[in-house]
Amino acid sequence: MKLDRLFGILTALLQNDRVTAPELAAKFEVNRRTIGRDIDALCRAGIPVVTYQGSGGGISIAEGFRLDKSVLTTDELSGIIAALKGIGSVSEQSKVERLLDKLNAGEDSVVFLREPVVIDLSSHYKAQLTEKIELIKRAVLEQRLIEFDYYYEKGKSRRVIEPYFAVFQWTAWYAFGFCTLRQDFRMFKLTRLWNLSVCDEKYTPREIPPDKRDFNARFPDDIKLVALFDKSVKYQLIDAYGPDCCIETEDGLRLEIGFTNREYLMSWLLGFGGKVKVLKPDDIACDIKSAAEKIRSRYE
């Protein structure tokens, strides 16, 4: 947007004594003629922009001009910067860099970009993840259906949904929308979602019921696990659930906790090998025993 670019040019001018039109054109991915029109617009807005011709020339702001950023406090700006950096890990980098530029006008700025908090919301599949999120964002803004292959425990199915949000929940990204196949609101994990495309067909946004907006309710801890762990894996339990998650007994570390996903619970327990014994529920204990026997049979 032109307004975004004008703010970005203004910030670049405040950060540097002098910049050239080609530098600005490259930074904001436009041609030099567009930069020239933007400079004229800044001048008409009352900002004293000065141009110098010849060798060593360029564009600068008259000495003494300062951008007033007193509307936001240091803590508020720091919070915005930290959030932008997190979004920047899964968004088109150039757009986020421009937003960050607007909040930093050199050494005299209220807050610097050296924010002590690092947030990375990407994954091993960062490139594909960023592309998916950008497509979902575009589809939501344009109110267009999206179509994709989805892999789950029963295999693969082709889904078409009305997208409403890209959601980061429980260490993973999801697409939230109205599934035309199930005729209900659903969450789709992006790492299981492939061959995503934005359809030409548009949709009329639906009213989302309050219970569907509560994303935490989609992860109910309805599997109640009771298990004894070897004391040598205490650090792993603390890493997952904190120092107060288990009780130390003569037989080992007793953990009582709820789980949402049975498949995840099984793989998590099997990762401890012989250092865990499931006490409840009985069906999980039986499945662990069966899985262990199958593993042993592969090596016979």
Quantity of strands, as a count: 11
Overall form: elongated
What distance separates the N and C termini? 66 Å
What is the helix/strand order? HHHEEHHHEEEEEHEHEEHEH
Low-confidence regions: 105-113
- Beta-strand share of residues: 25-35%
Largest sheet: 5 strands, antiparallel
The helical percent reads 25-40%
Radius of gyration: 27 Å
Instruction: Give the number of helices.
Output: 10
Average pLDDT taken over every residue: 81
Structural class by sheet pairing and helices: alpha+beta
Q: Report strand order across the widest sheet.
A: 6-5-4-3-7
Short description:
The chain is an alpha+beta fold. It has ten helices and eleven strands. It has helices at residues 2-15, 21-28, 32-44, 74-88, 93-102, 126-142, 210-213, 234-241, 262-270, 282-298; strands spanning 49-52, 58-61, 144-152, 155-169, 172-179, 184-189, 193-202, 223-229, 246-249, 252-259, 276-280.
Label this structure with key terms.
alpha+beta; 4-stranded antiparallel β-sheet; 10 helices; 300 residues; 11 strands; 5-stranded antiparallel β-sheet
